Amino acid sequence: METMPSSPLSLIIPVLNEAATITTTLRGLAPLRQGGTEVIVVDGGSRDGTPELARPHCQEVIDAPGGRARQMNRGAEAACGEILLFLHADTHLPDSADHHIRQALSRERCWGRFDIRLEGNSRLLPMVARAMNLRSRLTGIATGDQALFMTRAAFEAVGGFPDQPLMEDIAISRRLGRLSPPACLHSRVTSSGRRWDSQGPWRTIWLMWRLRWRYWRGAPPETLAREYRHVR
């Protein structure tokens, strides 16, 4: 694989009613934008003014049908970069993230993710983050919270994110894993632990593991998504 020291990078953020977090997230990306990174926000039907808050801090805000996978695919379609980075609205990248990504993609890898740190009130969050990072290294499966990145060629080779309402990160990791192992970066993104704080850490851990187990066993993503929304 050729090195990618100067390949253009596009950062895609799917959002839905993220008025409380989007401005802080985008302001934190200002150094990347100044360095040439394209930032695209893809809105899935927000009703809280998220698109209006986002516009001053990114290159483009576009609309897409609801659903994270559809939003990310739409953002990739509109993006100009040869490297695609998908970031959740409540996740913050480490310093020099673009440099880390380009280096990772010059080592016989076409995709990867960051380690994660969870920020919140629960004392269990460091343990949860360590478990997520270890599981990802052992299985080669990444979660969306870990800021998935990949070459455009790899994204197109696997057909983008599958059109499903949940577990799209697991599904695309499986497909990308057929092209190369993931680059598992030790640099950490910082993601909100609001899910664990609001629902309780043990309850959330049990829910996520149960949903993942059922997905591995072949349960339809649509069924799991309905259960996930009900619990939330």
UniProtKB/TrEMBL annotation:
Q: Which residues form the Glycosyltransferase 2-like domain?
A: 10-109
Cross-referenced InterPro entries, in alphabetical order?
Glyco_trans_2-like (IPR001173), Nucleotide-diphossugar_trans (IPR029044), Trfase_2_rSAM/seldom_assoc (IPR026461)
One Pfam family, please name it: Glycos_transf_2
Where does the protein end up? Cell membrane
UniProt keywords (A-Z) are: Cell membrane, Glycosyltransferase, Membrane, Transferase
Q: Name one GO molecular function term.
A: glycosyltransferase activity
- Record's Gene Ontology CC terms? plasma membrane
Protein's recorded name: Glycosyltransferase
The major lineage groups are: Bacteria, Pseudomonadati, Pseudomonadota, Gammaproteobacteria, Oceanospirillales
